[in-house]
Amino acid sequence: MAGLAPARHDEETGGRLLGIGAAAQRLGVSERALRYYQQIGLIVPASTTPGGLRRYSESDVARVERIVELKTLLGLNLDEIALVLRNEDRIAQIRLTYHDERTSEDERRQLTRECLALQEDLRATVEVKRAALDAFLADLNARISRARALLADHDH
Amino acid sequence: MAGLAPARHDEETGGRLLGIGAAAQRLGVSERALRYYQQIGLIVPASTTPGGLRRYSESDVARVERIVELKTLLGLNLDEIALVLRNEDRIAQIRLTYHDERTSEDERRQLTRECLALQEDLRATVEVKRAALDAFLADLNARISRARALLADHDH
DNA sequence: ACGGATCTTAACGTCAACGTCAGGTTTGGG
DNA sequence: CCCAAACCTGACGTTGACGTTAAGATCCGT
User: Fold this and answer.
1) Coil, helix or strand at residue A72
2) Are A136 and B69 in contact (CB under 8 A)?
3) For B144, which of A108, A119, A130 is closest by C-beta distance?
4) Separation in Å: D9 C1' and A48 CA
5) pLDDT-derived band of residue A155, with 50, 70 and 90 as boundaries?
6) How many CB pairs under 8 A join A and B?
7) Burial class (CB in 10 A: 0-12, 13-18, 19+), B144
């Protein structure tokens, strides 16, 4: 089974669904943002009431948290985030298909390779960013050392 | 003597100045962006022709490179970038007037300390980002390892 | 079955960071 | 001196990611 993976299917949502207001508050984003994310296909609430009100599950919340992370941390725009999420959805689907009896050995290997390639692609871009950030930090530290030297010199 | 904002000593520009077109092409930004950066006070070209054409020095180019770096790498907006650059200009100016008789010891120490604080503040935010990025990478690597394990298992 | 909080869609507004003309000016090579 | 290329200054347009009403529907506790 999935260890810590959010492979939660909505059969297991246990009734603890959030309205859009509560979800927005917990996430620290606006209701408008949640509707907008849905509008552009980033997320669909786990269910809706017969009257049409959005109900968000915990995995929905986690998904939005990921959206925010990808946005603030990696600086991706919503189109790029859509790509990443689609990849991850694909991976989840592959994992499901993988355990299906009707899936052949060859198919499974193929799917796993595809999944691996997608993840490694993302890792490559992230590592480029990390390297650049390290260089930036090194430069910054050098500047700080020089300023410190100036100070120490003056305090003689 | 235009000693207002840009404290770069371009005595040694050796005539190798770039027009806005060449500068933009080398930097991979638009001419409009360069004019806009000037408009909001991020950069002033090293000189202008008597007719009013902008001429960019190598240090101007370097400055714009820094702007782009701060933008793409740290995700700062132009207002925040203005803050960082002004701080760095200040440090450069302090370094230049280091042996100026008219600056008192106390003044120098105060300025240096102030700049140091600002730099360390920037470093703090950058390091937070770096830590988050590392966590992100670790998670990604874990996912990749699991996928690899799946593959190896199947290749048995 | 009612009323107030919560939510709906639709539509227009906003802001940063430029893009894109239009119409006139400057420059550098021949 | 001439002219095409490069450049200038406004001024208005665009795009992404929402913010903000407006006018009405839905949910839920009593």
Assistant:
1) helix
2) yes
3) A119
4) 55
5) low
6) 97
7) middle
CA angle B107/B42/A68 to nearest 5° reads: 105
Q: Tell me the per-residue pLDDT of B63-117, one tens digit each, with 9 for 90 and over.
A: 999 999 999 999 999 999 999 999 999 888 888 877 677 777 888 788 888 888 9
Q: Is the predicted pLDDT of residue B141 greater than 60, yes or no?
A: yes
Contact A144 B98 (CB under 8 A): no
Q: Which of A88, A120, A133, A153 to mutate to test the interface with B (most CBs of B within 10 A)?
A: A133
Say if A59 falls within a structural domain. Answer: yes
pLDDT in the model for residue B5: 44
Report DSSP state, residue B77.
-
- Return d(Cα B70, Cα B77) in angstroms, integer: 8
Regarding whether A57 and A111 lie in a shared domain, the answer is no
Which of strand C's nucleotides are less than 7 A from any protein C-beta? 6-9, 16-20, 25-28
List residues of chain A with CB under 8 Å from any CB of chain B. Answer: 69, 72-75, 91, 98, 105, 108-109, 112-113, 115-116, 119-120, 122-123, 126-127, 129-130, 132-134, 136-137, 140-141, 143-144, 147-148, 150-151, 154-155
Q: Flag whether A5 is in a domain.
A: no
b/e map B80-105, b = 16+ CB within 10 Å: ebbebbebbebbeebeeeeeeeeeee
Residues spanned by the domain of A86: 76-156
Of the listed ranges A66-75, A109-118, B21-30, B45-54, the least confidently predicted one is A109-118
Which of the four pLDDT bands, split at 50, 70 and 90, describes residue A12? very low
Note whether A128 and A151 are same-domain residues.
yes
- Work out how many domains chain A is built from and give that number: 2
- Scan for tokens 């991850």, then name that residue: A88
CB contact under 8 A, B140 and A122: yes
Single out the residue in A75, A97, A116 at which a domain terminates.
A75
Tell me whether residues A130 and B126 touch, CB distance under 8 A.
no
